[in-house]
Amino acid sequence: MMNFINSLMTDFVLSVESSYFLSPTKVITTNGAEIDKLFMYTTVMNIFYFVLVCIGLIGFSFLYRKSKNPKPYYTYGNKKNHLIVTLIVGLAVFLSIDLNITRMSNDDMLEHFWNFPDHKNEDTIKVEVLAQQWMWNFRYAGKDGVFNTADDVMSNHDLVIPVGKKVEFRITSKDVIHSLYFPNARLKVDAIPGRITRLWFQPVETGEFDIACAEMCGTHHYMMKAKLKVMNEDDFKAWNNEAEHLAEVGNDGSNLDNYWGWKWEAE
Amino acid sequence: MTYVHPIHDAPKTFLSKYIISFDHKVIGKQFLWYGIFFLGIGGMMALMIRWTLAYPGEAFPVLGNLLFPHTNGVVPPDTYAMLFTLHGTIMIFYAITPILIGAFGNYCIPLMIGARDMAFPMLNMLSFWINFVAGGLLLASLFTPYGGAAGGWTSYPTLSTLIGSPGVGQTLWCLSIFVLGASSTMGAINYVTTVISFRAPGMGYFDMPLTVWGLWLTAILNAIFLPVLGAGCMLLVFDRVFGTHFFLAGAAATQGTGDPVLFQHVFWIFGHPEVYILILPAWGMVSDFLSFFSRKPAFGAKSTALAMTTITILSTVVYGHHMFTTQMSPLLTQTFMTLTMTISIPSAIFFANWLGTIWRGSIRFDSPMLFSLGVVFVFGLGGLTGLYLGTVSTDLYLHDTYFVVGHFHYTMAASVLLGGFAATYFWFPKMFGRLMNETLAKIHFWGTMVGLNGIFFGMMVLGYAGMHRRLYNPFVYEFMQKMIPLNTFVTISALVMGVFQLVFVYNFIHSMLKGEKASDNPWEVGTLEWTIPSPAPHYNFKEIPVVKCGPHEFGNPNLNNGRDFQYQTEELVKA
Q1: Contact A92 B327 (CB under 8 A)
Q2: 8 A C-beta contact, residue B350 and residue B304
Q3: Looking at B233-325, which runs of residues are DSSP E strands?
Q4: What pLDDT, in 10s, does the model give residues B355-394?
Q5: A156 and A237, same structural domain?
Q6: By the number of CB atoms within 10 A of the CB, which of A112, B49, B164, B432 ranks highest?
């Protein structure tokens, strides 16, 4: 028992020393930083109001304790100036935090996250994603540029994309609800059976990053991870050429399991 | 209009006195014991979850080998899923609801409004025993093949249909929630009727203590929205047992056009008001206690009551913020975001009124007061962190991470738990005729405060760093490797908090048997329940009291009766 408590104490000291404030993973997309910015704005405003609450809470508790202030001030708090102060507090919070973050978030959504790439006029990457217990399947259109044909490039676990290009994902699920989560892009969207959801981002950094499933999807939910590999233009081309070639010669066109994709509708 | 108060003779046998009792006070105590029992089970489950996250692959100390002999005491992954599912279900439906609403709702409403009992004593008795059946169903589900429900307390289809959860466990879970819904609806109808019909003569709505306001609004939400959840669970049972396709779609469906998202709408249209169902009683109690122990009238009591009403109404139209990641239409998303944000106006008014109440008071730091101040602190944190989640773009990152877990534990667990403890310390003398030990209560308060802030703030930091929920072993992800120490910190905080709850249990049982005898009015408060002896006699009030002033009459400078407060039955002294 003593040993157990001792080891807990050591763990405690170590944990406090090494964790302070953890920061989120590195942002690797053009718009991910917008979400961090909004987070910081909300945090600053929250700290301001929370400090006010604490000053009131601790300050009043100290100043007006019974031994210091035996005679309380008899008021219902319904005098005109009391009501005005209350109303000002309510409106100040609403105007300074709520309206601002609603506006900022709405702008972000309209300008970035809901502003899906225009595949006709831009050089983009399209990926179809099928979630299943407990694996991510990714599908590229292949050489013919048409989804759900025999030459589609298919990949499990590894999602390869080039840096600097907009990538749009269309996502569905085979069995239960999953959620495609890119911590480094600050984005996630659910994969829902019977529906197609969409997500896009534009990576600006190369490297390997985690992809996770964020929605409880069964016993091995925690194992449902994949790798996001962002390559530079040349590496991606080389990878893509080889993958398209392998798909052309290697895909079994008669295996119906390979046709889990769907037609990519313009909008 | 006058109503005949239900009068039943004082029970004589053990069975009619303690088991099948019609007396709201006994039913309240039954709910209290029932809730504390499940609080213990739910808390134990929480410790197992936390242990797994801090020490993956290590045996759970003491109990591990007994519960999981096949894995040498390590919590296995499928059991882990059951643990967090049942932890959520138990804490919400079988611990907090029975304690705050079942126990204190039952005990306080008639006493505080000057009634002899609830409007429907028989329905009240049924409400407890049906709840008991629901609890039995839930516990029974653990002993079925494949074990209990493991789809999260939200039990989203299609994971909760046969596709994701074979076995009887999930079906029993749905049935237990359905039965529990019936029980809570009975209670709710009873509370609403009692408050409307049985207020003592002279007591207008704004003369009711704010505790009653909170419990009453909670009951209204319960009566409206629990049937919705019941219906959703029944449809799920249909899908599981009778082969319907309400919630099946895509490759999993063989026919028909169901939709798994439909369940989420049904669930959250109940689920968001549920948050307020849990917190409203605590808000009401805290608003009262701050006034009682500051010895001055509740600041802006009327606006507090109206703010609570506003939130009650708003809570019914914001549920979509739980579903941003399902990608609803942009218009719907914007609407839900904007509506959610308006909740901060009434919330800010609360805080202004709470601080206004203690401003220039003469504050006594008895244990109910300490816990109430604690509620203001943790609800401040919980409320403000909700802003990140009501905002669509930050929610896209934070949804389903530990940030959400930390946030809703601050609002629903920390605030409600502290509120519940405040209520227990406050009404214990009236319930059992004895006082709880103040020193132990204060030790309990500080231990709980330190523990729960360590847990839930730690969780929010983890979530901001990107750790998502319901992972058996988060550290299979590279980016979460660095979070092991903080997870350890959270787990140790949870152990600390757990240990300090033993102080409470000891204090509760010891004081009930051997505590100092309480006077009729140990806190010197003027509401109606303190005008009668402690413990409250069978008929509550010998004569139905006539109410002449509000519940917060403290510190009136013109009072010359040797007290600094007035009973609600006394004519208001002009200031």
Answers
A1: no
A2: yes
A3: none
A4: 999 999 999 999 999 999 999 999 999 999 999 999 999 9
A5: yes
A6: B164
pLDDT in tens, B105-160: 999 999 999 999 999 999 999 999 999 999 999 999 999 988 889 999 999 998 99
Tokens coding A80: 């005109």
Q: What part of B 417-476 touches A (C-beta under 8 Å)?
A: 461-462, 464-466, 468-474, 476
Indicate which CATH number applies to the domain containing A236: 2.60.40.420
Closest CA to B436 of B498, B366, B487, B379: B366
C-alpha distances (whole Å) from A184 to each of A33, A163, A203, B476 are 10, 14, 10, 17
Is A265 among the domain residues? no
Q: Which of A12, A21, A38 sits opposite B489 (nearest CB)?
A: A12
Residues of A in contact with B405 (CB under 8 A): none
Q: Is the predicted pLDDT of residue B552 greater than 50, yes or no?
A: yes
B557 vs A contacts (CB less than 8 Å): 71, 74
Does A7 have pLDDT greater than 80? no
Return the residue matching tokens 């227990």. Answer: B424
Q: What is the pLDDT of residue A267?
A: 66
Residue of B nearest to A99 (CA): B341
Residues of A in contact with B149 (CB under 8 A): none
* Residues A129, A109 within the same domain: no
Instruction: Flag if B461 and A108 touch (Cβ within 8 Å).
Output: no
**Which B residues 308-337 touch A at CB under 8 Å?**
325-327, 330, 333-334, 337
pLDDT by residue (tens digit) across A169-199? 999 999 999 999 999 999 999 999 999 999 9
Q: What is the residue whose two structure tokens read 């217990």?
A: A133
The answer to whether residues A215 and A166 belong to one domain is: yes
Which residue in chain A has the smallest CA separation from B380?
A: A50
ipTM (interface pTM): 0.92
